[in-house]
Amino acid sequence: MNDKRGNRGLYVTLAGVAVFFAALELLKPYYFLQNDNRDYILPCMAHVFRGLLAGAPAFFNFHQYCGTPFFSMGQTAVFYPPSWISAALSELLTGELFAAVDIFIFLHLAAGAAGFFRLLEYFGAREEAAAAGAFAWTLNGFSVFLGSSWGYITAPTAYLPWLTLLSLKFCDTGRLRPLLLATALRVLFLYLGFMQFFIYSCLFEALFISLRNSLKYGAAWLKSGQARLYAAGYAAVFAAGLPLIAAMWRQVSDSAIRAEPFGRQMSGAMSNSIPLWLWGNIIPQFHGFAGEHWFALLRARFFSGLNWYESFLPYYSHMGWLTLLLLCWFPLWRRGGGKERAAALLCGALAFGWAMGWFNSFICFIPVLNRMKFNFKLTLFLNFFLMLAAYLNMSLWLESIAPARRKLAGWLLAASSLLGFFVIYAVSPHRGFLVHLDKVPFCEPLEKELSDGRIFTLGVPREEGAEHTAALLGFNYATLLGLSHFAGYDPLVGKLNSRIANGLNISASADIKPDEMPSAIAYLRAWGVKWYVMDSRDSTRYRASLLKLGLREKFSDARRVIFHDSGALPLVRWRATGTDAAITAETGVNTMTVRTDNPRGDYLNFAVVWNAGFSATLDGKPQPLERTPHGRMAVFVPGGRHEAVLKYRPVFF
Predict the structure, then answer these.
(1) What is the DSSP pairing of strand 465-467 with strand 454-458?
(2) Under a CB-based contact definition with an 8 Å cutoff, are residues 78 and 66 in contact?
(3) Residue 455: which H helix or E strand, with range?
């Protein structure tokens, strides 16, 4: 193996990725702040960052679902330093947190480009081929198109090349340093909390290492001391990640929608297909190009049965035309064999079949894997192994031409790869599941008023296409803006939270019929909902019912209408009177501190969903915490001046 470090080629590669990223951001500012990146990941980053500034890890979130666990949701990335760094850089450079997701993605793409470059170089590829491969790996449709919706998918883009490289170095040299570095990176990757991609990455890394080493050293390697040490590295990762793994497993078991394994049909949902995969690699759709009309007819003829989400699969499959050309250049396959290329193709074949849904019949019976949906996600790993083979092919081709033209030809191909990706993203609209149309950065002009009580979003849920979403304060915008919403968006929301929120998720909005309005408002009043936000287009549907129930319109513009309910109960109140007289409440990251001065003893009722991680103290001493019949929490406070504190800590932490 070639362990020579040619830094010049690496610097050119990283500069190319940086230029690409800067050009994309100049052309389409906040390019990656779409779909979940805006309404889930950015609020998570904001909550974690505020916790760090307050000196406490964000274990709990009082802003959504009337209070819900935060750390145990996993993807909140509470203990993931790149998330902190991205938020801090955004605050430092822009004075806002809105650039945090784009910075996060750039850091991971740059790390992935460097890792893929070094991996190809380690396999003996020329620096020009390594650079072209790094561009393809980091800028393919899965990383960029899908990355603008799900930013965390750029994490395996960053980690997989480095984990593969370090594991190979350990196996080839026997030195412990690469193994220790790989173990540390796996722990870091795990604490991002995106368990599906972490597990997939570990599976494919271990498979590739085992195949390649078996081809190179013989099957006996699997029983060698090095193989045992390699496995011990994974055991160390599990031990180091146990606090998060245990908390997430408990949350999954309690989840309203993920507690049970998926059956065969759900396991196979959103599988890719060979026609869609070929379509995305040969003719990715442009916006407004000359043949768009004929392209639309082709799509209607062959892909008319696609649902909304499946229609995006071709864009996420695109590997770049250079990659496809190198894979199809069959004369190169007769030269240079290579254990690495053979292992890559075997792993690629597995990823291909898995992405296409060919293994659903038994995947649905495998523990852990049968809780993961959307097989098209395996397209990332297919890209990884095909690109390894393709750019080893490119290096072989460069070696076959005249030495005087080798370097120039190689860098021209690398530049064409970079340019090809930029052209696609520059002329094509966002290919995200949901495109937010609100101009960034944005603020909430009524933040001070809305901080008094909870918010409820009225209206038909809109979860597909392009929408102005921020004004309606659904999804997890309450967390981002430091407000409080009755519902929210989280795939692992617990059963009790979900039951109390009547199953609301994703857009966190509900269409309440006029005859259901009296009982709904009475219920929401008990949970401290004072504000009702609705799209101005829908306001006529609710206005009469709300006015009849005593609510008053407080604000309206072209985007939204907001009603206020003076009959809503306080979030912290005395049980006997239902008022907050002589109560001063302050909400921290994981705590609620309440100071009282009541002449008589009474229970303090908290409009926060009960959770086993909470404990209570009264004047610094432990106090029994009661779970009310309505799923809230209460603590008894005797007469006089006292300080009661609710504190949350994850059960397994």
Answers:
(1) unpaired
(2) no
(3) strand 454-458
Give the N- to C-terminal CA distance of the chain in Å, as an integer.
43
DSSP characters for 551-610? -EEEEE-SSEEEEE-TTPPPSEEETTT-S-TTEEEEE-SSEEEEEEEESS-EEEEE-S--
| Residue 379, token pair as written in the block | 């397209």
> How many residues can be counted in the chain?
653
Identify which of 84, 8, 74 has the alpha carbon closest to the alpha carbon of residue 45. 84
Longest Cα–Cα distance of the chain, Å, equals: 94
The whole-number pLDDT of residue 304 equals: 64
Measured CA to CA, the distance from residue 614 to residue 590 in angstroms comes to: 9
Q: Is 461 exposed, middle or buried (0-12, 13-18, 19+ CB in 10 A)?
A: middle
Task: Place 50 in a pLDDT band, splitting at 50, 70 and 90.
Answer: very high
Bridge partners (DSSP) of residue 531 are: 455, 564
Nearest to 154 by CA among 25, 267, 280, 41: 41
Rounded to an integer, what distance in angstroms lies between the CA atom of residue 568 and that of residue 531? 9
Residue-wise pLDDT for 567-625, tens only, equals 999 999 999 999 999 999 999 999 999 999 999 999 999 999 999 999 999 999 999 99
Return d(Cα 299, Cα 311) in angstroms, integer: 10
Paired tokens of 599: 């002449």
- Which of 332, 349, 43, 112 shows the shortest CA–CA distance to 211? 349
Residue 459: which pLDDT band, with cuts at 50, 70 and 90?
very high
Q: Shortest CA distance to 478 belongs to which of 37, 152, 59, 66?
A: 66
**Beta pairing class for 454-458 and 529-535:** parallel
- Tokens representing 216 are 């190179």
**Residues 6 or more apart from 342 whose CB is under 8 A from it?**
211, 215
Rg over alpha carbons for the chain, rounded to the nearest Å, is 27
Q: Cα separations (Å) of 505 from 33, 40, 486, 488, 534?
A: 20, 12, 11, 6, 16
Nearest to 149 by CA among 386, 470, 383, 463: 463
Q: How far apart are CA 363 and CA 340, in angstroms?
A: 27
Please enumerate in sequence order all residues whose Cβ is within 8 A of that of 500, keeping only pairs 6 or more positions apart, or say none. 65, 66, 527, 609, 631
CA nearest to 99, candidates 89, 111, 85: 89
pLDDT digits (tens, 9 = 90+) for 163-218: 999 999 999 999 999 999 999 999 999 999 999 999 999 999 999 999 999 988 98
Higher pLDDT, 538 or 208: 208
Query: Which residues lie closer than 8 Å to 459 by C-beta, 6 or more apart?
Result: 472, 509, 510, 511, 534, 535, 538
Where do the H-state alpha helices sit in 218-312?
A: 225-240, 242-253, 264-267, 274-282, 292-302
The C-alpha angle 145, 165, 138, rounded to 5 degrees, equals 15
Q: Three-state SS string across 486-554, please?
A: CCCCCCCCEHHHHHHCCCCCCCCEECCCHHHHHHHHHHHHHCCEEEEEEECCCHHHHHHHHHHCCCEEE
Amino acid at 426: A
